[in-house]
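Illustration: Long-chain-fatty-acid--CoA ligase.
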Amino acid sequence: MNPHLAPVEVPDPAALGQVQRLCDLADPYATGAEADGLFAAAMAETNAWHAARSPFFAALLQEQPEIPAPTVGDAVRTPLVPAAFFKRHEVLSVPRDEVFLHLTSSGTTGQKSQMFFDRWTIRSAQRMVARIFDHYGWITPDRPVNYLLYSYEPAPSLKLGTSFTDNYLCDFAPARHTTHALRHTGSGHEFDVHGCIAALQRYADEDAPVRILGFPAFLYFTLERMKAMGMAPLRLPEGSLVVLGGGWKGHTDRQIGKDEFRAAVTERLGIPAESVRDTFGSVEHCVPYVECAHHRLHVPVWSRAAVRDPGTLRPLPYGEPGFLHLVSPYITSVPAQSVVMGDLASLHPGEECPCPLSTDWFTVLGRAGVSRNRSCAVAAAEMMKGMS
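Result:
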């Protein structure tokens, strides 16, 4: 068995047996009544787990119940915790000596989320990533690749979730050579655009596929610089793959549409659009959402998604924009099994995507801007008004 797909055991098999069963499902996009029933049972277990260990979550359960989201399950309790809550509060459901990993969000300004993971939580999330990569045929232990990582070069004090994830993704195919775009200088990180261009030129002349991972903005800046320098387009070897995530962070003023972005990658690097995939995830909710070949972010079997009205937090029907609400019972270290993200999104049924997957999928529309004196709901409502 591939080591990334190896079994991982929950902290308490008696208390979390259904969580174990759900996270052991090998098909990342399984659907049906059995999967839905297992998800509901697992959520009941994880809610009980956190209520017994976190006074914060126990108090949430005593408040007036939230309006259930049909896409999650009418009988599933999902007390709504904003992702921003974890920027100012450390709420653990395990003793600190059981914290296996401490990661932070990658925001460019303001307070970062501080998230803590026991061994089960982070290993089960990694296994989800591995199963999705395996589903798409991206685990190739016998085929070395060259990596260009648009993420932070490792440093002793670096705890960013994005850096941790990108380096983990390098385990799915052996590395012939690795280049980091954001180089560690000793006092921080700097974007080495010329180093990226030199790496791409070198990789284009080799026979190994290239895997480009990380922040999309910096890949786009590389392509822009290549064009400005009058460089001829490159043709990276067949089997090359682009898997991006983390958003444009402090560069949203230069963000372009995804179709235009993929077209630029194809034009400048020769990688077909179906091999340019975006992802969605966060340090507060580590379940991976990876685009299919038609560029839809399908919800895997281990989680459920809903969209909630920014003003009332009521669940919205398919196609309506609102706050993205993500639910998964996998996490035992922190009561983050039901998180309302700061992202605006719309949810769609699986049959609206032409790919073979039948799970729901969502489109991220942007982030709700906030300030010290403006609520998330007001900011989101204003942002969506501008979209109409």
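Reading the tokens back as a structure: Residues 158-163, 370-388 have pLDDT under 50 and may be disordered.
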